[in-house]
Amino acid sequence: MWLVFYLELMFGLPLSGYGIEPRTLHGLIGILAGPLIHGDLLHLVSNTIPLLFLGWVLFFFYPRIGGVVFLRAYFWTNVLVWLFARPANHIGASGVVYGLAFFLIFFGIFRRDFLSLFISVIVLLLYGGVFYGVLPSDPRISWESHFAGALVGIVTAVTFAKQKKV
Q: What residue ranges are annotated as transmembrane (predicted)?
C-alpha cells in the first residue's frame, strides 16, 4: 500500500483510476488493485494501523488459518463490492480491515474457547466502532466495502469455528 502510494505521489501516476468500479470490465482490476490504492496520506494511515494490528493478531494466534482468512477478506470482499456496490470508484483497504475485524470478533463468539473469546473482546474494545461503519454515512466513504468485509469476516468465522486446530 505504501509503495503504491509512493509511486503515485512521486511519479504522478493516476493509479486511483484502478479502484473497484462495480459491474464494469475495467473495474475488475480493482478487485486486486483497489485495496492497495488510497486517496491521501490520512486514508493510507487509517488503514495501515488497523491492518497491521489485526493482521498481527490473526497470524500470531491463528497461524494455520491466517493466510486463508486474509485472502478471503481481501478477495471475496472486493468481489462482493464489484458485484453489488453503487457505481463509484472504491479504493482503500478498509474492506480488508473490516473482514479481519469481524472475523476476529465473531470467531471467538462462534468458537467459544477462552483465547478466542479474549481476542474477540480485545478487538471489540479497540475496534467496536466498525459496527457503525457498515452503514451509509458519507458518500465519499465506501460503506459497501465495509459491509462486504463484515459479511466475509462473519462467514469465514463460521466456516473455521468448528475446526479443531487453528
A: 91-110, 117-135, 141-161
